[in-house]
Amino acid sequence: MRLVKPRLVVGLVIVGVFLVLGVIAPLFAPEDPTAWNTYFRNKPPSSLHLMGTNNLGQDIFWLLTWSIRNSLWIGLSVAALATAIGVLVGMLAGFVGGFLDRVLTLCMDVVIAVPSLPILILISALLGGNASLVIIAMVLVIFNWPWPGRQARAMALSLREREFINVAQASGESTAKILILEILPFMLGWALANFVNTILVAIAAESGLAIIGLSSLKEATLGTMIYWAMQHQALLLEQWFWILSPILSIMLLFIGLFLVSTGWSDYFATRRGRQ
Length: 275
Fold this sequence. Notes:
It contains ten helices and no strands. The protein has helices at 6-24, 60-96, 98-113, 116-126, 133-144, 146-159, 163-170, 175-211, 222-231, 240-274.
């Protein structure tokens, strides 16, 4: 039985294409893709403009690559910070237990109970749609770290009863060393799947805010690309690449990340079952 499932391979290929478009391709942009009136407006696709130009005088292809880059930055940064904080706090709470566990668990429960979307909308509205991507990312980190934290705590509670943990404690190893060397390796596979899921959540949240005009409209993301296309009547102008390319990109990126997440979970579960 193969450990690597086809869905994982397909997901990695899709995500790999987006990484090329969002990380490597923007380096070759001839002009600032976000600047208005750089090119003649509403030009059809050609060898010079692969997807044509929009009503703002921007090259749609290079604008798309720039938007993918910023959306990936939000997703990756939020996922990395939220997963790292959640795993570390959850491991500490579950392994140490006692008063520290109760306090950290209470903090996680309180944050989980507060809905993040209204808070994001409120912050964005107060800033008049000028909230920077960094601010949006930090808010998303605050509301997303408790989810991996709760799961990491449950895993730590189970692992601390294992015989090898008792041996490590009896040999005088410190709590930090036990957490990093003994418990963390058991969580890496699950943490990667959670990391991918959090990328989805972060990109979806920012895109939703951007489409209604409450994200950082000065920054190009997949959501703000849709917002400006709607504001300038891309459908009436039949600027299909302008409006459809970010929508299809979001859909394909979500499918790719979902396949990677589920494929990696299956791979990790199968490998763990063979051990």
